Write the structure tokens for this entry.
Amino acid sequence: MVDAALDRIVCDEWLLWVLRDILGVRGPKYGCGIEVCHACTCLLDSDTRLTCQLPMDQVAGRTVTTIEGLADGDTLHPVQQAWIDLDVAQCGYCQPGQIMNAVAMLKRIPDPTDDDIDSIENVCRCGTYYRIRQAIKHAAQMRTD
């Protein structure tokens, strides 16, 4: 989470650029800049938001979580661990956004169906959608076992 640092920043900029260019947080990626690819997905409070079109004035006083904030020390979040266990990533560019959407979905839907998972709108140019689906199911099992 990057809350304390964000509270000190006052600017007329999108959250993505503040995270990447000012704070050096590299997890959220710039993909399209028009809210289509979802590579820039982070959690604002506990809801997913696309940071490429999120102005800083909507962030003040709220909790921002990037993929860097999911792990608990050396213990990865179950979704991060599932991604590794099932070797999901190819190029890896979209994976932070994919993981953040999976984390948010599993909070809302602890045992998702294929249709639930397929409703995640992140674009993966490498086409790892099948492995993404399997990893989300694996993470759901890890959380309940």
Remarks:
- Residues 19 and 79 are 22 Å apart (CA to CA).
